[in-house]
Amino acid sequence: MMTRAVARRAASSAIVLDWLPVLVLPPVLVIDAASSAQGKPITVVSVLSAIVACLPLVLRRRVSFPVLAPPLVAGIILTLWLLHPGNTVVLIPMVALFELALNGDRRRSLWMRLAVVPCVFVSIVPFATGWSQITSLVIRNLALCLLAIAAGDVVRSRRVSTRRMLAAREQETLRRLGDERLRIAREIHDVVAHAMTAINVQAGVAAHLLERDPGQAYDALRHIKDASGEALSEMRTTLDVLRDPDQAPPTGPSAGLRDLEQLAGGLRSAGVAVELEVGPVGDLPASVQSAGYRIVQEALTNVARHAEASRTRISVQRRNGAVTIEVVDDGVARPTPDGGAAGNGSGA
Q1: I need a labelling partner for 77 at 20 to 30 A (CA). Which of 14, 93, 243, 317 fits?
Q2: Do 275 and 163 share a structural domain?
Q3: Is the pLDDT of residue 348 over 60?
């Protein structure tokens, strides 16, 4: 297990990646020269020439093509002169060109394609015999070098595409999180504002009737208990989901236009006569049902808090493919000390 961990760390090390071609390519060049009929005798000097030819590859991820090309060409010529590994020497520029294309851009890759032609030609001409051999070797090695550049371009393009896709996903995730936070904030606001308004009104009724009509005062206190219990239950459910993201959200049906009678009952218990008229809206989507419920809830909360109304009419109808909600009361908004309408600016 420890050996595998060390191997993984070594494979991801920048130093190991930089020196890997220097460790792998010289033995390949030596074996090619030893097995080739045109290869020269293997000596210490010829082996060192193969290592020297590969040494510029250590800098392939740090320097540009104009800086790396001269030492590579010189190293290849030295290796061909002392070792003559004719078939595999092209691996040296291929490694460099792939890495340069991978860490560059499309414009630099285009210039590399143009500049690699004279480099290949200069590396081959001194060691080839006859124009036919020069032509075949130039075409083969040039094709391999261009293939290395193309491969680097493809890998780089995929990396860029992947990064862009991940960035887009992250932005979409952040947007959804922001929308969800706003939705939860509105949900909690609607629940708390409506419940606290109902509790405030019922508490006033109970205090006013406690001595004159204890029975009605008791009913008001019971409504306070029911309203606070429902609000606490809804808030607890929402907060439990926020505390534990793995917890499944509530699966029960959300409040909708079918529940407006219960909503109106809370205002009636506060002494406001409520006339409710709801058209055929049972087949509306759940999102529309919930939004309509919250709109009416907010309106009734404002009626109870600010209007000092004795009568309210609620109308929910479908007209021309749209849902029309109308809440009308006979009250007048209580002014604040600075002359504005009552409220804190948050819809409460």
Answers
A1: 14
A2: no
A3: no
